[in-house]
């Protein structure tokens, strides 16, 4: 479980994260969304103690990450899947991580099986494809059987099989009672994976709520209607103050009236309806609508990805156990 309270991070004059409070609960997948440069990576780094908050605090299972006696068992993180450039085999790499963190060697085989790398476990990890590297990074994150897992853009660059695998894995990890916190730019993917959303814009909280509640906050959509009595349908919509326009496949798009108003009016007028479907915003549409004011980089009014994201520098004091393990393993 992760609890952020009044979290703030300032780089020089840039406020990257501003008074951010949210909770990542066990047993569900929480999606972390925000336009480019909105502060997602900075927030994740603060959760792991890799960046020091300018104000506020973030706790993992009740205490700061850095104070955990077994930090890898508190949070298993995959922040940069491409970070594993090793001449060692996947097996030796995981063995080294396990040895450094005091994890029994027997666990290595277990996580290799969990991520489906058994066949290639003895091959040099440096030669792995992006998808295999991603699996290895996840195996490493799961070694200490963490109560919280945190993945930054885990499906970036993966093929459909890899995306499906990660989606199912995250759901599975949540079903085991873990808190799962995952950032992604792929809204359609988040809609399929996340139960809950934390949405930020310009470092500030926009939403901390279930996916459907977030979507329901968008402006009202129209209603798709089908009827064999087209003229009567037009008349009753106009009489009710709505607007009607032809849509695909012989259906009509009705604006300004609710499904209930259309259905009741049709019943009163004896007009048969073959379809009466409220149109719902997709998560992508909801995200665009609700973060429109929070997009930092815009061209001609349209959102555009950040062209520049500076590397984050850490002071030696900010190193955590996770970094030390990474250094140990890279040797
Ligand atoms: N070390 C740093 N020094 C100065 N500014 C920084 C530093 N790290 C991040 N920033 C700035 O803080 C803001 C938030 O950056 P961050 O990388 O956390 O956003 P993000 O939501 O992860 O972006 P993206 O989706 O593009 O990865 C951005 O404006 C970024 O330029």
Automatic annotation (TrEMBL):
Pfam families hit by this protein: ABC_tran (PF00005)
Biased composition (Polar residues): 312-325
GO molecular function, one term: ATP hydrolysis activity
Swiss-Prot/TrEMBL keywords: ATP-binding, Nucleotide-binding, Transport
ABC transporter domain mapped to chain residues: 2-227
Disordered, as annotated region: 300-331
Entry coiled-coil feature ranges: none
Origin superkingdom: Bacteria
InterPro entries: AAA+_ATPase, ABC_transporter-like_ATP-bd, P-loop_NTPase
Family: Belongs to the ABC transporter superfamily.
Protein name as catalogued: ABC-2 type transport system ATP-binding protein
């Amino acid at each position: 479980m992760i609890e952020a309270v009044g979290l703030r991070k300032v780089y020089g004059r840039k406020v990257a994260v501003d008074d951010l409070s949210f909770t990542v609960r066990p047993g569900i997948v929480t999606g972390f969304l925000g336009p480019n440069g909105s502060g997602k990576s900075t927030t994740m780094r603060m959760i792991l103690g890799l960046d020091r908050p300018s104000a506020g605090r973030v706790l993992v299972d009740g205490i700061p990450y850095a104070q955990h006696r077994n930090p890898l068992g508190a949070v298993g993180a995959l922040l940069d899947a491409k970070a594993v450039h090793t001449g060692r085999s996947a097996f030796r790499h995981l063995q080294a991580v396990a040895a450094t963190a005091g994890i029994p060697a027997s666990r290595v085989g277990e996580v290799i099986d969990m991520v489906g790398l058994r066949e290639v476990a003895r091959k040099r990890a440096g030669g792995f494809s992006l998808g295999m590297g991603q699996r290895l990074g996840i195996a490493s994150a799961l070694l200490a059987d963490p109560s919280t897992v945190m993945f930054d853009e885990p499906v970036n660059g993966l093929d459909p099989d890899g995306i499906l695998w990660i989606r199912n894995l995250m759901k599975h990890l949540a079903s085991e009672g873990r808190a799962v916190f995952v950032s992604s730019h792929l809204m359609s993917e988040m809609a399929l994976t996340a139960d809950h959303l934390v949405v930020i814009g310009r470092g500030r909280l926009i939403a901390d709520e279930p996916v459907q509640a977030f979507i329901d906050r968008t402006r009202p959509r129209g209603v798709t209607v089908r009827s064999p009595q087209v003229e009567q349908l037009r008349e009753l919509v106009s009489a009710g103050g709505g607007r009607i326009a032809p849509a695909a496949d012989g259906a009509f798009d009705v604006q300004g009236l609710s499904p209930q108003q259309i259905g009741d009016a049709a019943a009163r007028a004896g007009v048969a309806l073959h379809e009466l479907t409220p149109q719902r915003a997709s998560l992508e549409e909801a995200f665009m609508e609700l973060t429109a004011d929070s997009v930092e980089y815009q061209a001609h009014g349209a959102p555009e990805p950040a062209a520049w994201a500076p590397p984050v520098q850490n002071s030696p004091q900010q190193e955590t156990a996770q970094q030390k393990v990474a250094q140990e393993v890279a040797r």
